[in-house]
Write a structure and sequence with these properties.
By secondary structure, the chain is an alpha/beta fold. It has helices at 36-50, 98-111, 148-159, 185-190, 205-217, 235-238, 250-259, 285-301, 319-335, 370-379, 392-395, 418-422, 453-460, 463-472, 484-492, 495-500; strands at 12-14, 21-23, 28-30, 55-57, 68-73, 82-86, 90-95, 113-115, 118-121, 124-128, 134-140, 165-169, 171-172, 175-176, 221-228, 306-310, 339-343, 357-360, 387-389, 438-445. The relative contact order is 0.12. The structure holds ligand TNX.
Length: 526
Amino acid sequence: MALPSVVPAPASIEADGSAPFALASGTPIVAAAEIADATEALQSLIETRTGLRLDTREPADSAADARAIVLEIAGDGAAESYRLDVTEASVIVNGTDAAGLFYGVQTLGQLVEPAPGGWQIPAVRIVDAPRFAYRGVMLDVARHFHDVATVKAYIDRTSALKFNHLHLHLTDDQGWRLQLDSRPLLTEKASATSVGGDPGGFSTQDDYREIIDYAGARHMTVVPEIDLPGHTHAVSLAYPELSEEPVLSDHIREIVRDYGGELPVNGVPYDGMAVGFSSLKIRDEATYEFLADVLGEVARLTPGPYLHIGGDEALGTSAEDYDYFIGRVSRLAASLGKAPVAWHEAGTATDLEPTTVGQFWGYVEPIDGMDAKARGFTAVGSDQGKLILSPADAIYLDMKFDADSPLGLTWARGVTTARRAYEWDPAEVVDGVADEQLLGVEAPLWTETARTLADIDALAFPRAAAAAEAAWSPAAGASELRTWESFAARVGALAPLWTSQGIGFTPLDGIPWAVEVAAGADRGDA
Ligand code: TNX
């Protein structure tokens, strides 16, 4: 008998084929008032999927023998863990904490299926907890600006896959997207455009707070990134005195040849796709006054523990200057009460602040010493949780999913199929890093080619689900669910749920996408 489909694969799932729990419009959700947010999350999930509006009751008002969905927080297991028991008589979702309950509710939402004349939840017993504490997605709002509504939609989609961090890439050569009171010229002068001459935009501080609150209600922590010292051409529009002249390498000339656009000129908006040509002035104290303002304000606006300082692709910067800068800015971030995060290049910096977390963006089988750089973060300071893995040839969601789509790039070993996004294990990427030194996994989505939520959906789904499984589920080999065949069947079964939620996923080949003929057309309340 096939097990019910859950993505990411739970730590343990058992089903004995006994009778399902029938869902009807009168079915009550029984939950204490303190966990009303979980009740509402479940109500809206079920209503979106089935059209049924479930009742809600407090435990004291509920007859013990009535068929019900019971939500509760137990407080006695691993962080973010939950148990889910479904029988013909009841559904019990028991979270260790509020996040665990939220994840149990997401799992329950995936289990809802059409039944003759209505809807049901198959009998099942799930005991589940995450493999990694940090499970992230990154959205680049700099190459193309994405507004609050789009970011919220991405939070909905990814928190449902049990991701718990949203990294926002807020600044890059093409635009500065967060309004700062200390440096208002940044958004006044450097936010109007996006890649390809598309319109720009920026988030006000209220917008940013709205995103943080919305994410928090879905158990996601926002990780803001101010990318430094490269990827800073936009700064030259507002503070030309802080910017070096662009370094016009062969790479830049190739990008202009292959993708069009102009060469970068300081003080003029850059809307091409080249990387690595810009830098702040590294030996000028005015740069550090600027960064004290910028990072100080971002740190104050952000309740989460991390502050991402970038550090990638500073191609025109000497190793000596790069080391000096990263050392100094990582310590500045720490002095603001945040754990610095930086892309893996920063692992070479001799004076790196010891609490800095590294983000590896090399390949699943690293080349060119990318792994050695990543090991730099685990060599200093505490040995706990120092690396986030974002292998580009597996979980860069902006890589093309097929050669013919206009969406996506190909630099990370060509087309990234869903299977390639799936078949890797975090423990096997960077040699010499113990499991405890892995903080987790993050799937970035750069937006050079992604203009709209529809573009984001088409690139991210289903591959974000593969990344979720690397981040949440037991290691490959530690669970019989952790095979490509099992994943393909389970993710394919999510198609009707995703469709009900308006997720414009790409129905990639090799996955048996479920089709429900007139799902729910025959349901009891109709
Ligand atoms: C590399 S990976 C970048 C980004 C680009 C991306 C496009 C990394 C840290 N930097 O600047 O947007 O490739 O895939």
